[in-house]
TrEMBL record:
The keyword Oxidoreductase applies. The lineage of its organism: Bacteria, Pseudomonadati, Pseudomonadota, Gammaproteobacteria, Oceanospirillales. The keyword Oxidoreductase applies. This is Phytanoyl-CoA dioxygenase (PhyH). Its cofactor is Fe(2+). GO terms for molecular function: 2-oxoglutarate-dependent dioxygenase activity; iron ion binding. It comes from Neptunomonas antarctica. Keywords: Dioxygenase, Oxidoreductase.
Length: 291
């Protein structure tokens, strides 16, 4: 039987049941209510002003970042920059997650980015991808994300899927491999540009044995930035909210502000919309939406 650290190294992810207590969940629920309402208001105001999101974020570089669903410019798909915006998240939640990650890795980690996927009914399918593709413009080459579920995540409402053991499935694949603190990790070929930017190529995804990772409210799933993952649409009539806090090793430096400075200034850069069901790049033209 593998211990948590061994299992995390082997699979690239681990589910920690009820790793957060009811106070933590209340903090996140309050932040979620406030930030979601603010996100909706931002989309409304930007639309009323006839501005593009790119124009808006160029001028408002400390604002919460909100990204609409691919098929509805008024519907919030995700919002980002949670710790930049919410003191409660920054002071109460981040230190707890840092402890969980340190217990697993014996190393100190600092926050790199944070977001909440609203996953409203009918929305939010994320194609198979590796997060590393979205982060490689910054120095850290290894990250650990804590996914926290504010609603139970089920197969019906679009839980995450991870591989049973992708290192084994893809052991013969001829691809770039990166040495990380969890060992060698493959970088998988993915689509470049357009609406499928960052999606793992179908032929590779087909070789992976995927497994659903359902979760209860308060569970935390830790996964590294090479672990392939995806999720289906939310086919229920309730939200499936999840917050994702991504960390990098402290020894690599602190990039949180630099990451969000770039994201505010380059809102439409496909790098920031890897395998997401969000309105961006060529989709804007196809749907007649403004970016
Ligand atoms: O929220 C989900 O269902 C998937 C999230 C994800 O894979 C991502 O944001 O990179």
């Amino acid at each position: 039987m593998l211990n948590d650290a061994q299992s995390f190294t082997q699979k690239g992810y681990i589910a920690l049941q009820q790793a957060l207590n009811s106070d933590d969940i209340e903090t996140l629920e309050n932040a979620s209510d406030e930030l979601y309402a603010h996100s909706e208001q931002l989309l409304k105001t930007i639309a009323e002003n006839g501005e593009t999101l790119t124009e808006f974020y160029n001028k408002n570089i400390h604002e919460l970042i909100v990204v609409p669903e691919i098929d509805n410019a008024n519907k919030v798909c995700r919002y980002e920059y949670l710790s930049g915006y919410s003191e409660a998240v920054r002071t109460k939640i981040i230190p707890k997650l840092q402890i969980l990650i340190e217990q697993l890795t014996q190393q100190k980690f600092v926050l790199f980015k944070d977001k909440c996927n609203a996953k409203n009914p009918g929305g939010g399918a994320f194609a198979p991808h590796q997060d590393i593709i979205a982060y490689d413009q910054f120095k850290p080459a290894y990250h650990i994300t804590a996914a926290i579920f504010l609603d139970d995540a089920t197969i019906e409402n679009g839980c995450l899927f991870f591989p049973e053991n992708y290192l084994e499935d893809l052991k013969d694949l001829n691809t770039k491999r990166v040495s990380t603190l969890s060992g060698n990790r493959p970088v998988l070929d993915s689509d470049e540009g357009g609406r499928t930017h960052g999606n793992i190529c179908q032929a590779i995804s087909d070789q992976i044995r995927w497994t659903p990772v359902t979760a209860k409210k308060g569970d935390v799933v830790l996964f590294d930035s090479y672990a392939p993952h995806h999720s289906e649409k939310n086919n229920s009539n309730m939200t499936r909210r999840a917050m994702f806090f991504t960390f990098n090793a402290e020894s690599d430096g602190d990039f949180y502000q630099a990451y969000y400075d770039m994201k505010h200034r380059e809102f439409d850069n496909p790098k920031f919309h890897i395998a997401t069901p969000t309105a961006h790049s060529d989709v804007f033209q196809e749907n007649g939406l403004k970016s």
